[in-house]
């Protein structure tokens, strides 16, 4: 059984997004743009930041070599 808020909240959000937002957002967008400027975070010139070496990663993000070694040990 699903609780009432778990069904009502998504329906209300869908109704807002599809029916009310196209009319309400143009009215509140000037106020929102004043509160949150476009550049909230400074840009970084380091293009390699956050990039990792994923060439040995499997489906779940685990290295395929490590899982192959474990499976080889189980076979012996």
Structure description:
This is UPF0729 protein C18orf32 homolog. InterPro entries: UPF0729_C18orf32-like. May activate the NF-kappa-B signaling pathway. With 76 residues, the chain is mostly helical. It is 58% helix and 0% strand. It is built from two helices and no strands. It is flat and about 50 Å long.
Taken as a percent bin, the fraction of beta residues is under 5%
Unreliable spans = none
| Average pLDDT reading | 74
Reading the helices and strands in chain order gives HH
Radius of gyration: 24 Å
Class based on secondary structure composition and strand pairing: mainly alpha
Tell me the number of helical segments per DSSP (H or I, 4 or more residues long): 2
Distance between the termini: 48 Å
- Fraction of residues in helix: 55-70%
Globular, elongated, flat, extended or rod-shaped: what is the shape?
flat
Report the biggest beta sheet as strand number plus sense, adding barrel if it closes.
none
Strand tally is 0
